[in-house]
Amino acid sequence: MTNYLIAAAWGFGSVLLAELVRDIYHFLAHIYPPLYRLHVWHHRVFRPNLTPVNDRIYQQAHWRNDVPEALVMLLSGLLFWALAYVITPHFHPWALVGCTYTLGFLLSAIARASGLNGADKFTDLTHQPGDFLTPPSIWLVNRPYHWRHHFDNQNAYFCGTLTLIDKLMGTALSLKGKTIAVTGASGSLGRQLLTQLYKADAKAIALTSGTENINLSIDGENLAIPTINWQISQESNLAELLEKVDILVINHGINVQGERTKDAIANSYEINTFSAFRLIELFLTTVRTNEDIAKKEIWVNTSEAEVIPAISPLYELSKRALGDLVTLRRLDAPCVIRKLILGPFKSSLNPIGVMSAEWVAKQIIKQAKSGNRNIIVTINPLTLIIFPIKEFFVSLYFQIFSHKSSSVKELEINSSGVETKVKETIRRE
Fold first, then answer.
1. Alpha-carbon span 318 to 328, nearest angstrom
2. Per-residue confidence (pLDDT) for residue 406, from 0 to 100
3. 3, 33, 138, 358: which has the fewest C-beta neighbours closer than 10 Å?
4. Cα angle vertex 195, ends 194, 199, to 5°?
5. Are strands 203-208 and 215-218 parallel, antiparallel or unpaired?
């Protein structure tokens, strides 16, 4: 058994090394001018629909970028094999798995560079034109994920196959230049989120049920934030605005503490659950194009109350309901939906909160940039253990015992070119 583990470790390690070297090479190509002069050809190749500008530039880009990149990967693999030969002579052949893996990239890059017919369709998968059928993925690079490197921010999304390096460097999501709207903007966390988004070079918009305009004090300067006043149950009035928003942060809520009256129940669910869900559905209607699928996101503050008591039964019930609805909805959502699982922080809703709203907001932005879909900020270590387990099994349960909506099925059918008659049959079902 020990021998198998050693062999597997060298084999897996060699493949992982190849991917890490490729992503580090890509990152260096953006900061080291001699490498960038070669890499920039890669960014000259594609239009936003991922069709090549012309064949000559496409082939030159592979000679100048992909082939040298694969050669560096191969060299690192050979050095890794030499290390294995010294440390464990009996297992050194397993360290050549990464070299074999890299040879596939090298040969396919040469094939594309040489203009071999059909090579691009079988070996350049992240640059294939056509409709995006899923949002950017979490751990593996897919077309929407890599599209963002070309047309969202070239100084982010560096990974080629695994997203690990982007997660570690905080480049799995770029907020620069994005229009981000935050509900509950007049609250403690809302204001701090707006502040941190502004510092991340995002275009922040405050959504508040109050009548005042939101002003922030940043580095001693008073800054007026574009403010939109709206009311619960009037979410549809935000439809025109949301068309222009890249990321919607749903952060508003109410905490009736220990009340359990009819009105307290109605208000808790209306504000914490149904208003948030209506905004989610309204925003999802704005996701239509490949660019929307790649760039648009929803962040929902569902709270640590999803799994941990908040000493406020109606707050817990309404937030758990919202959390489960989000888990269900993001199975088929056309864009990324992130959950904010936040522990107790000081605010008007929770004056005895332990964490500061500023620190919580900083952690939210940091984890979002690392690509986390479930952003957990808490001082309670149990939440870090319980929530991922709960989320996994609830999501699995929903996948097994529910099915896609007809609108999602219709979208899939439409993308595959099936006739309208089939769509009509699905609607009747």
1. 15
2. 58
3. 33
4. 115
5. unpaired
Question: What SS3 class is residue 222?
Answer: strand
Per-residue model confidence as pLDDT tens digits over 182-226: 999 999 999 999 999 999 999 999 999 888 899 998 888 899 999
CA atoms of 268 and 305, how far apart (whole Å): 13
Q: Which of 159, 165, 128 is nearest to 145 (CA)?
A: 159
152 vs 179: CA distance, rounded Å? 12
Identity of the amino acid at 415: S
Three-state SS at 46: strand
Which of 25, 58, 315, 397 is the catalytic position? 315
With residues binned 3-state (H G I as helix, E B as strand, rest as coil), the percentages for the chain, rounded to 5, are: 55, 10, 30
Contacts of 196 (CB under 8 A, 6+ apart): 361, 362, 364, 365
As to burial, measured by CB atoms within 10 angstroms (0-12 exposed, 13-18 middle, 19+ buried), residue 114 is exposed
**What digits encode the pLDDT tens for the residues 85-138?**
999 999 999 999 999 999 999 999 999 999 999 898 899 999 999 999 999 999
Burial of 231 per CB tally in 10 Å (0-12, 13-18, 19+): exposed
User: What's the pTM value of the predicted model, to 2 decimals?
Assistant: 0.90
The amino acid that residue 203 corresponds to is K
Residue 325 sits at φ, ψ, to 5 deg, of -65, -40
In Å, the largest CA–CA distance within the chain is 74
Name the nearest CA neighbour of 312 among 325, 303, 323, 322: 303
Is the pLDDT at 332 greater than 50? The verdict is: yes
Is 315 noted as a catalytic residue in this protein? yes
